[in-house]
Amino acid sequence: MGERKAFIKDTLVYGLGNGLKKFIGLFLLPFYTRALSVGEFGVLETLGTTAALLSGFFSMGLDSACGFYYFKAADNRKKDVLSTALFLRIFSFLLIVPLFFFRDTFSQLLFGSIDYAFLVLMILLLVPVNLLMSEQSHLFRYFRQPWSYNLITILKSLSNIGLGITLVIVLKKGVEGAVWARIGSSLLVVVIAFVGFNYRKYNFKFSFYWARKLLKYGFPLIWSGIATWVFNSSDRYFLVHYSDLHEVGLYSIGAIFSQPVLLINMAVQMSFAVLFFQLYYAEKSPEKPQSRKMAIDLYLVYLTVAVLLSTLLSVYADFLVPFVTTPDYGAGAKVIPFLVFAHVAAQSFQTMGPGISLAEKTWHYAWITGATALLNLGLNFLMVPRWGFMGAGLATLISFVVYWQVKVWVASKYFRVGYPVGRINSFFILALLLSVMVVVWPQWFPGWLRAAVVILVTVLAFLFKLIYPSDIKHIWEGIKSRRF
């Protein structure tokens, strides 16, 4: 139970940090929406989306590659891996410089005008700063320092709020001020994390051996990241083209209310890989029985918690959405089951099947994600014109589930973990169907029957032997004794 306890502890700590980050980040929203016009806010979000796309490309997959080889390398070579990744990151910044000369072109493509060229230049400056911030944050994961990670995360959010209010509200710098706030807060985190925590973790030596390893591992992940960006964003464009902004608003409300599952996913993603790779490379047996068991146990804990939360959000969505927002947004509740269960599928393909990473066959990620992106585009093309934002949600769910099943199947060719796939899929599908029934036919489900649905899904977790009463007892005793 040691690994499971460590997994739960790290997940709770990372989840706390990310939850606070999301909560603090929302603090700026009322200020920005009052200081910026709707069009200006749209410009800011478009720039942010563009920065995310460029970051995925120029990261060169180094975050994942560095994490993998850090745990694989011998103890006296770990600093070589970190330092080589740092130098490669700095080199990647030089590749961004030529884009400065095309800022007018990018402004024309994004906004139909060159008036936003300076803002495009600022976003190009933001990309390398964000990549450095990501690298410094990842070091806290490698060294199992979740509280330090949380400190840096909260510092980023608070400094962004302070700079944002000063530049946008007080000095009235508009969109430019908001972007400067993002650059300044990210740069502050880089400096404090590096000087205060991480500089001793480097030996500042460049290794061509590790550079080849890192780039070979990471390069396919660039295309995987871009494809992921495509099928995470394309549905909005389909809704605008085939429907209207009202449908986009309803879909966005559903996405916002699915955030609690995403918070769990982020926390699990930060804790699971570190624990698994530590055990895998420390375990002497070539069959890796402890690693296989740990992978199954930890995933089943995640699946149970995530599906129960998804069910809870779904069955009470039509009460929750109008209460938090207004009745005009109430229809957005109908898409919540598709999105929350899509998030569960997304984390499942992240957590299950480590075989691809262990075999260093990361090119599989590129073709699986690319094929899924094409599937998502096709499904949106077919479903959005017919069913609007509900069709977009269904397209997202199907795409993520297909990705999940294909990736686990491919990964099993390299390292067969032995997941109880039948029980996992049955639990997922039954909970999804019950949740969809409640939101599609709410008149059939009074309050007591909705509570019965949640209880039934909980019972199914025990009937399918995904968790056991002893697990609940152990977690509860750990919480009472503060061992977590």
TrEMBL record:
<dbReference type="Pfam" id="PF01943">
    <property type="entry name" value="Polysacc_synt"/>
</dbReference>
<feature type="transmembrane region" description="Helical">
    <location>
        <begin position="387"/>
        <end position="406"/>
    </location>
</feature>
<dbReference type="InterPro" id="IPR002797">
    <property type="entry name" value="Polysacc_synth"/>
</dbReference>
<feature type="transmembrane region" description="Helical">
    <location>
        <begin position="52"/>
        <end position="71"/>
    </location>
</feature>
<feature type="transmembrane region" description="Helical">
    <location>
        <begin position="114"/>
        <end position="133"/>
    </location>
</feature>
<dbReference type="GO" id="GO:0005886">
    <property type="term" value="C:plasma membrane"/>
</dbReference>
<feature type="transmembrane region" description="Helical">
    <location>
        <begin position="427"/>
        <end position="445"/>
    </location>
</feature>
<feature type="transmembrane region" description="Helical">
    <location>
        <begin position="251"/>
        <end position="277"/>
    </location>
</feature>
<keyword id="KW-0812">Transmembrane</keyword>
<feature type="transmembrane region" description="Helical">
    <location>
        <begin position="183"/>
        <end position="202"/>
    </location>
</feature>
<feature type="transmembrane region" description="Helical">
    <location>
        <begin position="451"/>
        <end position="468"/>
    </location>
</feature>
<dbReference type="InterPro" id="IPR050833">
    <property type="entry name" value="Poly_Biosynth_Transport"/>
</dbReference>
<feature type="transmembrane region" description="Helical">
    <location>
        <begin position="214"/>
        <end position="231"/>
    </location>
</feature>
<feature type="transmembrane region" description="Helical">
    <location>
        <begin position="154"/>
        <end position="171"/>
    </location>
</feature>
<feature type="transmembrane region" description="Helical">
    <location>
        <begin position="362"/>
        <end position="381"/>
    </location>
</feature>
<protein>
    <submittedName>
        <fullName>Membrane protein involved in the export of O-antigen and teichoic acid</fullName>
    </submittedName>
</protein>
<keyword id="KW-1133">Transmembrane helix</keyword>
<feature type="transmembrane region" description="Helical">
    <location>
        <begin position="298"/>
        <end position="317"/>
    </location>
</feature>
<keyword id="KW-1003">Cell membrane</keyword>
<feature type="transmembrane region" description="Helical">
    <location>
        <begin position="329"/>
        <end position="350"/>
    </location>
</feature>
<feature type="transmembrane region" description="Helical">
    <location>
        <begin position="12"/>
        <end position="32"/>
    </location>
</feature>
<feature type="transmembrane region" description="Helical">
    <location>
        <begin position="83"/>
        <end position="102"/>
    </location>
</feature>
<keyword id="KW-0472">Membrane</keyword>
